[in-house]
Design goal:
heterotetramer; A: alpha/beta; Rossmann fold; 2 domains; B: 321 residues; binds thiamine diphosphate; binds magnesium ion
């Protein structure tokens, strides 16, 4: 575990958004390592049109500037063909490159899932350690932009379930940069999930290259009354709740695992050993979620420390609705997180 | 006169409704009255209308992320569409679907689809129902040039060919997929690809309502008569951005202006019917006005409508756990 | 919850295997309801070959005899085209049929996952309740046949995670028949997972048509010392352990949820309220598994009854290895289940 | 004489090794010495060998569930293959992969693949590495007739076309996919499909080593010279069941006997080289015997080898949780 998290960027460092931090990480790694390539739809800017070939940089602009800087040999626009994109990335990773494939929305795993979980994820194991597949799958995830049922899912539980995949969910710009650089250097396939609502959030981010190791949680707040574990866009919400409660004298650990696979279960267990209380906040659907996963780890390994039922604050077991009022009710809110903390504090 | 007045009126009424509907959606979106991602169909009206005029409520269409025009052409109520697009109570999908997920089973509209290539496999299913239940109906899928590269679409073509399904594949080639041109992304050609599955496929000028209408007539007759699937590739233009708000930097200097001047299916229709003496400008203007009024009414209703009730979050799915 | 389970088939009923029971269910429902169709690879027997067109009945023989009986209009052989198979089933389900699609191995969800979780599963919700999608996806699942990494997965946690899908995992022939008939009649998409190792297991199965409702667990054994929850091929193993322990005077509830979505959490919670101890046995990989899911439900809702840590007995976080000794070690064994029960009994 | 003796020897040696290897695997499987599902390549030897004789270890192939022949043709050690297929320690993948997941990165063998259509997208990746790193190598994917219907394969064709990848698509049309014929399952034709992606594709008699050899030479030259992908559709036969143990009821009366008599690529090769006077029966018999000896040695080693050690279950994956 580490104390990095949101405050880790020193105040002297320039303020950058998550979008800028990821873009910078991509720039720096491509600069450093000629085997890093990028591929996906419009990642280089678009192609075959009459106007600018730099209209886009990925539809969310994350790869902006990379095409002009590194050329279309290394920043590769593709047709709409996700199976072929992920497959090409995996096969290239097996043969000397370090591809970063953009899946655009994580919801699109459905059309390329075989190449992710059955191919890329399994090569190392099923080929007896003789293949390495150093690739990153970048995708935007989560609700909040009224993008409706097929563009708003989280899906990290599905990816976390899969042996051979690593799953990264940065909650802030500092982590995003360090985790992206780590992801590119990692020798296993890494799913890097960028929450839509976080792209414009910012914090101090060093200009230098740095990495954040996988499987090291960040303690965003510290306190011994309750342990709150939250991921991605849920982290800022959990922090707000913790700060509000702190003003009342209730002090919570807010743990951001940063990677759900590998998971820093030690950090969580140690915290619960002290607090005896756990609230897990997960934007995903509840069944077989990472919330459930963390809850079960604690129920098995820190049982005797537990002084209250474990509370999971998640989305309901429904697709993401379009109507804004329903979508807002779908996502775990600060109010629901706060209530959960009060519940576990009030319990026997 | 080759076409009945009724047909011409119907065609223009539907096309101008779609055009104005989309223009209004852009306005309302910009005004903050529509949440989310919206892809407008303006520019492609002649395709949706030229195809759907051959269809009854029993026939089925499957649409894309760019689905408003298909909905209107298939007879969906525009007020209920507006409610849906605004995320309001009473919308076609209770406000839970939005622009990218409008469906209307009563009208044979199987749904927009926010996954590129998601539709054609499903439309095969509708065609399979028709075949299995011995109905003379036809199922129509709409796909884009970008979509033609998705494996699901190619699998759907093959399965339709293997099972001789009454599936009419309509490819609307507007030469753009977001900011990627078909010239870059489609190796080979769309119609050639369809034909390689042993499915006849015609190329048609998608800015010419009459060309689409005739090609569809032939294709749909083929499908209804049990001869299996048929395809068309319609050469068409996108009149606006990929989504509302798209700055369209991938457009060439003056490209959009040129297309709007020379490739606007509404202008082309108007020029044809007036020059042939089939309809007068006044008649056409009146139809424009009727459409505008209907849309205005729908927008006002949409703006005034309440949000879905909070418990809708949990309905329509087995949600206990 | 119910007392059905393995003993529910009355001893007067003929003995049938899981394979026969499912085949019979398909026959009877197709007979009763002309809108039921079957589609998949070789489900009708194969096609376009020089020899018999009834060489197969699905590669595992589950649909044997249906083609000749109901004709190729209703039992439809397809190319190798899983996205198109599932899509056709879903679209047909929206328009008046009740298709049963055979996916052969559940591992193949990777090439058709979008049609499952993003399309079929979401129609009812995202279309505001105006679409129904009454379809069944049949697939064989699980390890034990040395079928290696891409043909041995369980994947029910991934399917259980998805709102809109129902997930069925019969553990015996009696349940298999009743659950299959229920699945066909259900108006939501149902994933019906048939464990490879169970096809040849048998028990008394009535010739008559009957249904088993979803979300009703079976108590396969009863006892108040410990609650064991197990699914699919893990159920017979859990029963063997329970019977062995019973001989020592240790009595366990053995609960087979039969459907993981919906899940009969009440049955599990009520049992734990009495026993205070829980072992969950799940052949899937551990992270975000149904084992974790059930554990978390209990840790939240029956916490005060718990007298010991919850134990999950699962596969390791690895793909399924090919070598028989490794595969055997991969699957939860009776020895591991027994140890887990003894552990929770021995705990504070 | 058009072909060097060395080439002829090499070709026959590899083909007879594959044939006898597969026949032995069937025997060992039936004797209970091989676990799992095994799909043999016998009958298709001329394709794998005719293609791979043009390749070095730097070139890459991606295989299918029916991969033994491709492995041997690409130079994998048959003893290590046998260890793998038997699930033993020391196998090419430590016994963790098995017949359907043999890979050998050192030999440019990217892996068998138990998912139909799983390979071609990956082989695009290998081709992309070559192109990006400026290497003159070629990447080859093998697919079946059944596999040609999988969306992933068609997507791979398009992407290879778009990016001009040095990807040689080899379709082995043995006219069967399990118990489904291509006549039923492939709407249109395979070569026609490939060409519709603007990828040149030749049809070739896959039972004739020399035909495959020449077609591959041309195709691979095309790929290596930066002209983009190329395809062949090889008309070939499956000499045995889909998997070992398959009763093959879908075979016609006398079909298999006919194929083995008239379409056996080894017999055809032998007839050609002896009638041309390029090789003698004695030479060929000797090569048969060498292969038999090598296989016998491998099988004995496989039978005697230990299982993988228990801790291999947890190695080669990040497995803590
Ligand atoms: C599987 C998938 N990949 C990518 C996207 C993002 N996306 C939405 S529309 C679109 C372009 C589609 O192009 P085309 O099929 O030509 O239709 P058009 O937008 O021109 O109507 C893309 C890439 C998506 N929704 N689904
Ligand atoms: C995605 C997927 N679907 C189905 C299967 C089951 N399966 C294995 S091999 C095979 C037939 C493949 O036919 P073809 O591509 O012609 O290759 P061949 O067996 O003739 O070599 C099938 C259906 C699979 N392994 N993967
Ligand atoms: Mg387009
Ligand atoms: Mg074949």
């Amino acid at each position: 575990m580490s104390n990095a998290g949101i405050s880790a960027g020193n105040q002297n460092h320039p303020i950058k958004t998550v979008r800028e931090a990821i873009n910078e990480a991509l720039h720096q790694e491509m600069e450093r390592d000629p085997t890093v390539i990028i591929l996906g739809e419009e990642v280089a800017g678009g192609a075959g049109c009459k106007g600018s070939d730099e209209a886009y940089g990925g539809v969310f602009g994350l790869t902006k500037g990379l095409g002009p800087r590194f050329g279309r040999g290394r920043v590769i626009d593709t047709p709409i063909t996700e199976s072929a994109i992920i497959g090409a990335a995996a096969g290239a990773a097996n043969t000397g490159l370090r591809p970063v494939a953009e899946l655009m929305f994580v919801d699109f795993i459905g059309v390329c899932f075989d190449q992710i979980f059955n191919q890329a994820a399994k090569f190392r194991y099923m080929f007896g350690g003789k293949a390495t597949t150093p690739m990153v799958i970048r995708a935007t995830a989560g609700a909040g932009l009224r993008a409706a049922a097929q563009h708003s899912s989280m899906l990290h539980p599905v990816l976390t379930h899969m042996p051979g995949l690593k799953v990264v969910m940065p909650s802030n710009a500092y982590d995003a940069k360090g985790l992206m650089i780590q992801a590119i250097r990692d020798n296993d396939p890494v799913c890097f999930l960028e929450h839509k609502l976080l792209y414009e959030t910012s914090c101090p981010v060093p200009d230098e290259i740095y990495t954040i190791p996988f499987g090291e949680a960040a303690f965003c707040r510290e306190g011994s009354d309750c342990t709150i574990v939250a991921m991605g866009a849920m982290v800022p919400r959990a922090i707000l709740v913790a700060d509000k409660l702190a003003a009342e004298g209730i002090h919570c650990d807010v743990i951001d695992p940063r990677t759900t696979s590998p998971l820093d279960s030690e950090a969580i267990l140690e915290s619960v050993e002290v607090s005896g209380r756990l609230v897990v906040v997960d934007e995903a659907n509840p069944r077989c979620s990472v919330a459930a996963d963390i809850s079960s780890i604690v129920a098995e390994h820190a049982f005797s420390a537990l002084r209250a039922p474990i509370k999971c604050v998640t989305a309901p077991h429904t697709p993401v609705p379009f109507a804004p009022n329903l979508e807002d009710a779908y996502m775990p809110s600060e109010a629901r997180i706060e209530q959960a903390v009060r519940d576990v504090l009030g319990a026997r | 006169m080759k076409y009945s007045k009724q047909l011409l009126v119907e065609a223009y009424k539907t096309m101008t409704t779609i055009r104005q509907f989309e223009e209004r959606m852009i306005k309302e979106f910009m005004a903050g009255n529509i949440p989310g991602f919206v892809h407008t169909y303006d520019g492609q009206e002649a395709v949706g209308v030229g195809v759907c005029m051959h269809l009854s409520d029993e026939d089925i269409i499957g649409s894309t992320h760019r689905g408003h025009g298909h909905c209107i052409a298939k007879g969906c109520d525009i007020e209920l569409m507006i409610l849906e697009i605004m995320g309001k109570s009473g919308g076609l999908c209770k406000g839970k679907g939005g622009s990218m997920h409008i469906a209307d089973m009563d009208k044979g509209m199987l749904g927009a689809n926010a996954i590129v290539g998601g539709g054609p496999p499903l439309v095969n299913g509708a065609a399979l129902s028709m075949k299995t239940l011995g109905k003379p109906d036809v199922a129509v899928s709409f796909s884009g040039d970008g979509s033609s590269n998705q494996g699901t679409v190619m699998e759907a073509l093959n399965l339709a060919g293997v099972l001789d399904l009454p599936h009419f594949f309509v490819f609307e080639n507007n030469h753009l997929a977001e900011g990627t041109g078909d010239e870059y992304a489609v190796s080979g050609g769309i119609a050639e690809r369809v034909r390689a599955f042993d499915i006849p496929c015609d190329k048609v000028d998608g800015t010419d309502f009459f060309a689409v209408y005739e090609a569809s007539k032939k294709a749909i007759k083929h499908c209804r008569s049990g001869k299996g699937p048929y395809g068309i590739e319609a050469d068409v233009i996108r009149y606006d951005g990929h989504f509302i708000g798209d700055p369209q930097a991938y457009r060439g200097e003056g490209e959009l202006e040129y297309l709007r001047e020379h490739k606007d299916c509404l202008k082309i229709f108007r020029a044809r019917v007036t020059s042939e003496g089939w309809m007068s400008d006044t008649e056409l203007d009146e139809l424009d006005q009727h459409a505008a009024d209907a849309i205005e009414k729908g927008v006002q209703r949409g703006l005034a409508a309440p949000q879905p009730s909070a418990d809708e979050l949990y309905s329509d799915v087995y949600s206990s756990y």
